[in-house]
Amino acid sequence: MNFVSVRIITGDVARLVAFYERATGLSATWANEDFAELRTASAVLAIGSTRTVPLFAPGSARPADNHSVILEFLVDDVDSVHRNLSGFVEDFVNKPTTMPWGNRALLFRDPDGNLINFFTPVTPAALKKFAG
């Protein structure tokens, strides 16, 4: 098994795609107005419209209602990313903070309220874990 994708359901695909393109520096690939993907080296962030939900199961997903998942992105320099996103991101949950497990983390919310963690390993153990 290979974990390949996370999909966010939103009421405004264009707005959320534009946010993630700016936040990550990636360009989205659009399938149609209801679905786009941002591809990293290891996984895909898919963004789908509420109009796609009935294709799976009506009512099975609700936009802007996530209270348990954090999307995490490994970045080269979280402090630099924080400076770059200041003035763009409206809801920083914390400033770059070194966590007990060795990552320097920046937690913020996208326009739908989803939590995003950009992090950089900084301790020897964390660096070893993400060496690739």
Description:
The protein is globular, with a radius of gyration of 15 Å. It is built from 4 helices and 9 strands; from the N terminus they run E-H-E-E-E-H-E-H-E-E-E-E-H. It has 2 domains: 50 residues, 2,3-Dihydroxybiphenyl 1,2-Dioxygenase, domain 1 (Roll), CATH 3.10.180.10; 64 residues, 2,3-Dihydroxybiphenyl 1,2-Dioxygenase, domain 1, CATH 3.10.180. Strands 5, 6, 7, 8 and 9 form a 5-stranded mixed beta sheet that branches. The protein has 132 residues and is α+β, with helices and mostly antiparallel strands.
Give me a quick take on this structure.
The protein is built from four helices and nine strands, in the order E-H-E-E-E-H-E-H-E-E-E-E-H. With 132 residues, it is an alpha+beta fold. The protein has two domains: 1-50, 2,3-Dihydroxybiphenyl 1,2-Dioxygenase, domain 1 (Roll); 69-132, 2,3-Dihydroxybiphenyl 1,2-Dioxygenase, domain 1.
Give the topology, please.
Blueprint: E1 5-10, H1 13-24, E2 29-32, E3 35-39, E4 44-49, H2 53-56, E5 70-74, H3 78-85, E6 91-92, E7 97-98, E8 103-109, E9 115-121, H4 124-130
Parallel strand pairs: 1-4, 5-9
Antiparallel strand pairs: 2-3, 3-4, 6-8, 7-8, 8-9
